[in-house]
Fold this protein.
Amino acid sequence: MVGSQSSLREANRARVVDAVKRHGGLTQVELTGATGLSPATVSTIVKELVAAELVEVRNTIRSGRRAQLVTLAHRVGLVAGVLVGARQLTVAVADVSHEVLAEQVLPLPAEHRADTSLDRAALLVVDLLERVGSELDEVLGIGLGLPAPVDAASGQVTVRGILRGWDGVPVAQVLSKRLARPVFVDNDANLGALAESTVGAAREVHDALYVRAGHGVGAGIVLAGRVHRGVAGTAGEIGHVQVDPAGNICSCGSRGCLDTVVGDRALLEPLRSSHGNLTLSDVVRLTNEDDPGCREIVADAGTVVGGVVAGLATSLNPELVVVGGVLAATGEVFLGPMREALRRRTLLQQVTPLEVVPAALGTRAELEGALALALQHTDLLEQPDTGPNGPGDVAVGQVRTGKGNR
Amino acid sequence: MRGRTPLLALRQVSRYFGAVEALVDVDLEVHAHEVVALVGDNGAGKSTLAKVVAGVLSPSSGQVEVDGEPVTISSPSVANQLGVASVFQDLAVCENLDVTANVFLGQELRGRAGLLRDGEMETETRALLEHLTIRIPSVRTPLRHLSAGQRQAVVIARTLIGQPRIVVLDEPTAALSVAQTAEVLTHIQRLRELGLGVILISHNLNDVRAVSDRIEVLRHGRNNGSFPASATHEEILAAITGAA
């Protein structure tokens, strides 16, 4: 019985930690309700967890009464990650050990605008901080991802038309002025690549490609362990590689881009007459439920994306292709045809055949990347001389001091 | 996939209050697995339409169909039986009762002797909150201790009791903070994923365009355009104000 009692104790501790993680911060009274444990047990466990430095307790006010707010222990400081997607905004707050303390998703309208979305992002950051009982000045930096090529220094979208409503907006400057914290901006696929190459599937790999297949397709290129951005931040924008010379005009202004063939609109249109009004996540869900029509659409997209990735891989000779984005959540339905398209290219099969794997961080890769970006820069700010990232970091300093324009 | 017969259809529905034309020959269809937004200026007839669907008001003329069959929604309980659940602007919650009691308000589970099956209701409430990914620490918290967003979530959870097929939400994001709005919009997406038809009434075009499949504009009690979710802010605004 002694054994089962200690395992019960373990289970109860896990329940308390889970509840704190799920809610960001809870008072001891709320913990009692959330876990179903007695107040005495909660109190004992919280004391143990505080001693083990897993959680922290701070004073707060609930319903006009003083209460003890229990949150996960924050190490040193916090970072915030903001991921702007085609149809949703995700904001997360994490500590410097990369532990996500609170997170919130906000659905966004199609072709959302920078002013409204950045305003909401700023309010969400503040709200999440409040949820974990912290202040804005504990935040060391904010990493922000955009679904378009960006200039890392100003955070401005470099190609007009791709992210309508965000053209000409100095994103880093707008948000850092609003929150008075340093803001670092990058393309979402680059952030996915950063996360996968630091803590994900490409951890031990020097040269890798990260392919993000969602509302649009993009890639992040990791060369010698570093994300390659290019002069205008458009490196890896495979969504704008031409695949159909007689195709439709793309949002970027060119004809027959990959995005016009496998972007969300292109994927959803052929399903309209048979399946009605679907969203991309409906297609992913139905594919995973074995709906033949949706599987067909996703598999064909895999083949086309694979063909373009083959071209990129032939030029760069990476060791690994990591696939993320919502379409990767269909697993082999998307990855299989993509792998097949790559296998046909002889050069990719030499010495070590090119491997295609799903993102280890799944659809969270980009958000984790935004947090990693902020963390990377805050490390640099603490030790300015030893930064491994070279000249790019000068520009970061500019953003920090509010001189975002180049 | 989607059945050709809409879950709910209003055909040429009118409702007059004396000389006031609240609804004039309005058509509306809602399919399963679809969020239909109803937008319009103050007094455009949005809430009147919601009340017709909820059985609070009966139409002066016109026809309401559920699953293609003509029906008369003469009272809220008839609406319930037909699978229509509604949430109105004034949430109608009991501040002094806890989450479970509010979720089951008026639809309490009773045992043989008429006693409340409290444990069962609590378990079911927990499952419901989990299902909708609603974050409320305890189902035994009185509603007065919850935030506005959490209350809205409780009311949305309440609509799922009795397994409805159509949920009507009247201004669910009014007076909520951004984080609370985010939660409620996520719940609406979840209702859609569960295969329900949702009628979403709101003033906020941003919220509406974020989660709707289709946007129906009412103006002076009449249909004034139907838009896909991809329609621009300006197009919809023009239809609302009558500029187009």
User: Anything to note?
Assistant: Chain B has one domain: 8-94+149-241. Helices of chain B lie at 46-54, 76-81, 99-103, 118-131, 148-159, 178-193, 205-211, 233-241. Chain B has a mean pLDDT of 88.
